[in-house]
Task: structure prediction
Amino acid sequence: MNNLTKLKELEENEQVLRTLMRIKRENKSKFADYIEKHMNVKIDPNTMFDIQVKRIHEYKRQLLNCLHVIVLYNRLKSNPNLDISPRTVMIGGKAAPGYHMAKLIIKLINQVALVINHDPIVRKKLKVCLSVFHGMS
Result:
């Protein structure tokens, strides 16, 4: 019997599920504390974490992810009572020093984060964090 089969047998075990949820909650809280300490951004560990970390390229979906965040923001602005799961979007990566398009994508995500994170209407339901290393090859 392989490990996945053994795990499948535990899918209805309430004690195992409660333990996994507790571990997940503790790890999200630790991560939120880390983000606040190192990035000076307070995030709610009870939100859904939507994380994308990879080298910044125009073809690696950071731009698409940013556009999705803008759509969510616009939906919340037009209907602040919209029933969506509160979400924290975190985008991280590094960009080559001469890659102009990557720099523009980083700038866009930064500006979107500034608007969203300072908007009192959406801040309980949507937050954006960006961690990018510039000038790396």
Notes: The chain is about 50% helix and 15% strand. The first strand starts at residue 48 and ends at 53. The two ends are 45 Å apart (CA to CA).
